[in-house]
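Hi Prof. W.,

I finally got the DUF2057 family protein prediction working! I wasn't sure whether to trim anything, so I left the full sequence exactly as given:
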Amino acid sequence: MKKSMVAALVALGCSFSVSAATLIPLKGVSVYFINGQEAESRIGKNELVEGENQVVVRMDKKVGKGSSSGVFTSAPYVLTFNVSGDEVKINHPVARSEQEAKAAFRTEQPDWRITQDGSTLSYSQEKLQAQSGFLPYMKMDELIAAHNAERGIVFDNGQMTKAEQAATATLVTTAAVATSKDVTAVNNNVPKTTVKSEPIKAENVEQLKAWYLKASKEERKEFRKWMIDQE
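And this is what came out:
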């Protein structure tokens, strides 16, 4: 009984140690995606993980007064910052009129005002690349997936990381498999051992997807040809 209580307390302590921070968008800020997943609330509170976080936001606010008032909607921006506190607030750049809002977003680095537990929080940002045609940000999930794949960014249980090292290891393994027939021919007399295969991991699949999207048309064609040869 005591052992069970101790185990429960340890598990509870672990849950508190990895508890998420709260993201609060202030009036005029809409949150679309957090760490590759659609936000639970666009204008309400959301959870962030401890460490590096990626948040996709846009300014969406009524500006101006009287007959000159109107709703200003900016392009989506991908913000990245490190969370170590309890509460993160995001405010849009200063924009009291449509003219001021357009001026604020005319620059490549609009001044989002982000604080963590009351102190200014540093961040990096990129404007999300739009698709051509009508409603350029309609398929935002696909645009964000392409954005992250191009930069080798993947998420493992909400944790943001780079895919280069793991993906490189995967490609090396793939190359080894591609030459396995030659290796087998040379080592016909070597006793074979049976290796238990590991279960497929979601993060490995995401890494393969990221590298596939980064490959050229010729590289993709060659890779598909290799896959068919393995059947």
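The mean pLDDT is 80. Does that look reasonable to you?

Thanks,
D.
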